[in-house]
Automatic annotation (TrEMBL), chain A:
<dbReference type="GO" id="GO:0004834">
    <property type="term" value="F:tryptophan synthase activity"/>
</dbReference>
<dbReference type="InterPro" id="IPR011060">
    <property type="entry name" value="RibuloseP-bd_barrel"/>
</dbReference>
<feature type="active site" description="Proton acceptor">
    <location>
        <position position="50"/>
    </location>
</feature>
<dbReference type="GO" id="GO:0005829">
    <property type="term" value="C:cytosol"/>
</dbReference>
<protein>
    <recommendedName>
        <fullName>Tryptophan synthase alpha chain</fullName>
        <ecNumber>4.2.1.20</ecNumber>
    </recommendedName>
</protein>
<comment type="pathway">
    <text>Amino-acid biosynthesis; L-tryptophan biosynthesis; L-tryptophan from chorismate: step 5/5.</text>
</comment>
<keyword id="KW-0822">Tryptophan biosynthesis</keyword>
<comment type="function">
    <text>The alpha subunit is responsible for the aldol cleavage of indoleglycerol phosphate to indole and glyceraldehyde 3-phosphate.</text>
</comment>
<keyword id="KW-0057">Aromatic amino acid biosynthesis</keyword>
Automatic annotation (TrEMBL), chain B:
<keyword id="KW-0028">Amino-acid biosynthesis</keyword>
<comment type="pathway">
    <text>Amino-acid biosynthesis; L-tryptophan biosynthesis; L-tryptophan from chorismate: step 5/5.</text>
</comment>
<comment type="subunit">
    <text>Tetramer of two alpha and two beta chains.</text>
</comment>
<dbReference type="InterPro" id="IPR023026">
    <property type="entry name" value="Trp_synth_beta/beta-like"/>
</dbReference>
<dbReference type="InterPro" id="IPR006654">
    <property type="entry name" value="Trp_synth_beta"/>
</dbReference>
<dbReference type="Pfam" id="PF00291">
    <property type="entry name" value="PALP"/>
</dbReference>
<dbReference type="InterPro" id="IPR001926">
    <property type="entry name" value="TrpB-like_PALP"/>
</dbReference>
<feature type="domain" description="Tryptophan synthase beta chain-like PALP">
    <location>
        <begin position="92"/>
        <end position="398"/>
    </location>
</feature>
<keyword id="KW-0822">Tryptophan biosynthesis</keyword>
Length: 279, 416
């Protein structure tokens, strides 16, 4: 069974360039604006959308994404509304893959079976659930695969060769290599180490490997993109939204426009990356 | 409520995956998974190493001051008998205190810290991090870090830093760096989030010294094992003093380490009634309490599945308790399982009731109990008058209350 994610990577392979994977927080700064942000992503050059589900206790996230989640929750965002956001996006875009990214508890409380039915109906293609390692695959990973949703796993520098097979075992769609041990928004490590890590993972799998954590600029996207099948940008986008919001919650600029501008820049980076690779 | 088949023994958990029934587990980011597996292996090895046991035993005896006393609280017993008389009853159970307040650092927390620092040393870790609510675990962590010459960073909610100033100062004196955490309500939950973020960023050299019997496997089991010395001693001591097992044992439950430590050795003694006391805060009607097992439902947070205070979207609530050590919206997974199996009953005690027990214990016993322990005492005082005078009860006096004098002074309108 091929999914939108599989088809996207196949198309990018033909095009000969890495994917630009963009993360944003659903419901930040509010539902309507975040829908506008989401709708603007493909046009700005995003190949795959990671849709963040806000959680009260995001243990693996740095201050930027923590704050974005809290802003969304304060405006009444929930898992139900995040699925609704995806469904509304799907009304006008049936090809861009959507990967839901968040923590397990909201899904567990929603009910795994009911969640998977609603996620499929909302056009969700993949899941990244930070606090579900392979040891907990029975919880959501295996039911998700049965429901036709890719379960995308994070691999980290601590995932050694001995552990990689276990991590990759039930992974589909792509592998998300977290380029450093730490929380989201930390500094980017040097490229040669990232390239070596991607190579190491590729010895164990045919799945595309995308790299995230720490990518902020077009130049970084270009460099990382030359070493991987895709580049994930999250914190920089979330910061672009945050920079349009006054402390009192009013807007100084259009968040959707700010995000689109940033993504266009990053997109030129990954596209240059393909040129670099072709040279 | 989940229905659970009663097991032959309540003492065999967790299973290999770290589960107590549906509770527990290892819900952590991939970055931490190899560390947790390494920790589990190191703990298994240490458990079976006589030299580890011997070193822990020696430190417990000569450094922490174990065994802690089992003290017949005669003043409090007289008080409950008077209460019974006032109600026209001739009851009033005999109340014993397990004196964990007499340990070095002033609470049960040292038991676990000594065990884990030896493990950290064994694993070659060179930096200690810890989370703390009331500061008792922070102080114990700072203490053992000083003793073994390791740098220590303690994450503490900003609210707790404010209400537990004496302990903050003690930690600093001991050489620890106290990092206030201002996210959420600035309490234990937020401190734990931040400690996990530190750990995930410093996996190479850092040992995370969790203070309660919660978190990802193997922490709930390991902390319980290190704290079970409380119940093991209490069981022997009461058999020696009274020639029989107690009728009731009571302990306060935040994350639940002092409670599981007292309870575990008694779990298969069917005749012993076991009661855990949750922080009822300002009452269970609203959100200003921390009674996760009385008013919450199972969910996943901080590496384990357990009863949690949460809204219908699965967002975790902050909760409230006058006692910083109980101010946590979750509870250790083994308690959740003991609740569902029915072996232990969990009941809430309100802030006001705990304060009253705090004052009462101070006046009738000359012992200033920690506000956490005062919750357990409050329940003992509530039920003892209705029990016959030949009934025996053990209350875990998990810590001393010196750290709480500012909070209590404020609440009672006294100047310090």
């Amino acid at each position: 069974m091929t999914t939108r994610i599989d088809r996207k990577f196949a198309a990018l392979k033909a095009e000969g360039r890495p994917a630009l994977v963009t993360y944003f927080m659903g419901g930040d700064p509010d539902f309507d604006t975040s829908l506008k942000i989401m709708k603007g992503l493909p046009g700005a050059g995003s190949d795959i959308i990671e849709l963040g589900v806000p959680f009260s206790d995001p243990m693996a996230d740095g201050p930027a994404i923590q704050a974005a989640g809290l802003r969304a929750l304060k405006k009444g965002m929930s898992l139900t509304k995040t699925l609704d956001l995806a469904a509304r996006f799907r009304q006008t875009d049936d090809t861009t893959p959507i990967v839901l990214m968040g923590y397990y508890n909201p899904i567990y409380i929603y009910g795994v079976d009911r969640f998977l039915v609603d996620a499929v109906a909302s056009g969700i293609d993949g899941l990244i659930i930070v606090d579900l390692p392979p040891e907990m695959d029975e919880e959501l990973c295996i039911p998700a695969i049965k429901a036709g949703i890719n379960f995308i796993r994070l691999a980290t520098p601590t995932t050694d060769d001995k552990r990689l097979p276990k991590v990759l075992q039930n992974t589909s769609g792509f592998v998300y290599y977290v380029s450093m041990n730490g929380i989201t928004g930390s500094a980017l490590p040097d490229t040669s180490r990232v390239a070596a890590a991607v190579e190491r993972i590729k010895k164990h799998t045919d799945l595309p490997v995308v790299v995230g954590f720490g990518v902020k600029t077009a130049e970084q996207a270009k460099v990382i993109g030359s070493a991987a099948d895709g580049v994930v940008v999250g914190t920089a986008i979330v910061n672009a939204v945050a920079n349009t919001i006054n402390p009192d919650g009013s807007l100084v600029a259009d968040p959707a426009e700010a995000v689109a501008t940033m993504v266009k820049g990053l997109s030129s980076g990954v596209r240059a990356s393909s040129l670099a690779a072709a040279e | 409520m989940n229905t659970v088949v009663e097991p032959n023994s309540f003492k065999t958990g967790p299973d290999e995956e770290g589960m107590f029934g549906i509770f527990g587990g290892r819900f952590v980011a991939e970055t931490l998974m190899p560390l947790i597996l390494e920790l589990q292996q190191a703990y298994e090895d240490a458990k079976n190493d006589p030299s580890f046991k011997a070193e822990l035993q020696a430190l417990s005896t000569h450094y922490a001051g174990r065994p802690s006393k089992l003290y017949y609280a005669e003043g409090l017993t007289k008080h409950v008998r008077q209460l019974a008389k006032d109600q026209g009853l001739d009851g009033g159970a005999k109340i014993y205190f397990k004196r964990e307040d007499l340990n070095h650092t002033g609470s049960h927390k040292i038991n676990n810290c000594l065990g884990q620092i030896l493990l950290a040393k064994r694993m070659g870790k060179t930096r200690i991090i810890a989370e703390t609510g009331a500061g008792q675990h922070g102080v114990a962590s700072a203490t053992v870090s000083a003793r073994f010459g390791l740098p220590c960073v303690v994450y503490m909610g900003a609210t707790d830093v404010e209400r537990q100033k004496p302990n903050v100062f003690r930690m600093k004196l001991l050489g620890a760096e106290v990092k206030p955490v201002s996210s959420g309500h600035g309490t234990l939950k937020d401190a734990m989030n931040e400690a996990l973020r530190d750990w995930v960023s410093n996996v190479e050299d850092t040992y995370y010294l969790i203070g309660t019997a919660a978190g990802p496997h193997p922490y709930p089991e390991m902390v319980r094992d290190f704290q079970s010395v409380i119940g093991t001693e209490a069981r022997e001591q009461i058999l020696e003093r009274e020639g029989r097992l107690p009728d009731t044992i009571i302990a306060a439950v935040g994350g639940g380490s002092n409670a599981i430590g007292l309870f575990h050795p008694f779990l298969d003694d069917k005749s012993v009634e076991i009661i855990g006391i949750e922080a009822g805060g300002r009452g269970l009607d609203g959100e200003e309490h921390c009674a996760s097992m009385s008013a919450g439902r199972p969910g996943v947070l901080h590496g384990n599945r357990t009863y949690l205070l949460q809204n219908k979207d699965g967002q975790i609530l902050d909760g409230h308790s006058v006692s910083a050590g109980l101010d946590y919206p979750g509870v250790g997974p083994e308690h959740s399982w003991l609740r569902d199996t029915g072996r232990v009953s969990y009941v809430p005690i309100l802030d006001d009731e705990a304060l009253e027990a705090f004052t009462l214990t101070t006046r009738t016993e000359g012992i200033i109990p920690a506000l956490e322990s005062a919750h357990a005492i409050a329940h003992a005082v509530k039920i003892a008058p209705k029990m016959a005078q030949d009934k025996i009860m053990i209350v875990n006096l998990s810590g001393r209350g010196d750290k709480d004098v500012h909070t209590v002074g404020q609440l009672l309108g006294m100047d310090i």
